[in-house]
Amino acid sequence: xxxxLDGTEMSHIQARQLTKRFGEGDSLVRAVDDVxxxxxxxxxxxxxxxxxxxxxxxxxxxxxxxxPTSGRIALAGRRIDGMSxxxxxxxxxxxxxxxxxxxxxxxxxTAVENVELAALLAGQAPRRARRRALHLLDRxxxxxxAAHLPSELSGGQRQRVAIARALSNEPAVVLxxxxxxxxxxxxxxxxxxxxxxxxxxxxxxxxxxxxxxxxAVADRIISMRxxxxxxxxxxxxxx
Length: 239
Ligand SMILES: Nc1ncnc2c1ncn2[C@@H]1O[C@H](COP(=O)(O)OP(=O)(O)OP(=O)(O)O)[C@@H](O)[C@H]1O
Ligand SMILES: [Mg+2]
Description:
Elements: E1 13-22, E2 29-39, E3 44-48, H1 55-62, E4 70-75, E5 78-79, H2 85-95, E6 96-99, H3 111-121, H4 126-139, H5 155-167, E7 173-177, H6 185-200, E8 204-208, H7 212-216, E9 220-225, E10 228-234
Parallel strand pairs: 3-8, 3-9, 6-7, 7-8
Antiparallel strand pairs: 1-2, 1-4, 4-5, 9-10
Helix pairs in contact: 3-4, 3-5, 4-5
The protein binds adenosine-5'-triphosphate and magnesium ion.
Magnesium ion binds at residues 55-56, 101, 177.
């Protein structure tokens, strides 16, 4: 049964009174502190804020990688707080693409094999998965590195492979944590164009970034501090 969390219009991502605490007593950290969020389908949302303000924690809660201390989360109208690990794993596999701050590629697989893996695990036909993986590598400027192992790639190239991998399954939601943290201007531009392509395809994007250029392609910018939103700005899209 699909339903939104309250009477409002259904959004792709919804959170209500979302809270994540770590530790207790003197060491209590309110990483995410009573946050409400609605991200409509197809929105490109950037989250910005100082180190330690809770950006990564929020992203992981929204993607079902961490459990909230309290509060409710729905993805496409399905409650994920309290969902079983098994169902959560399937939902992530089929509907969510993650780009992590620390990107883990499989060392023994080539770039293209790393990218197509998620699609293969989700049951896509091998030829289609390969074609899309090569296309995505081309989009991030790595067409000529498809057959390289991660150990044969630079840090920024590995990061771009990880971005391509997150998109291989055509997920409805892409959650990206500092995707351009290690990239130079040219590679950042490739990633920017890729993200613009996501919007054209109607995919929902939540990206944590310090990079003003990435934030500039977002429809909306949320500023965070101490686990809470301090600003929520809808910006005109200039393409
Ligand atoms: N597993 C954990 N145990 C205890 N505290 C944690 C844990 N994970 C995160 N925290 C704390 O929660 C707060 C938010 O952390 P988070 O990683 O979400 O910050 P961030 O905004 O992503 O920072 P950065 O920009 O440095 O990546 C920090 O104070 C951090 O120390
Ligand atoms: Mg972080």
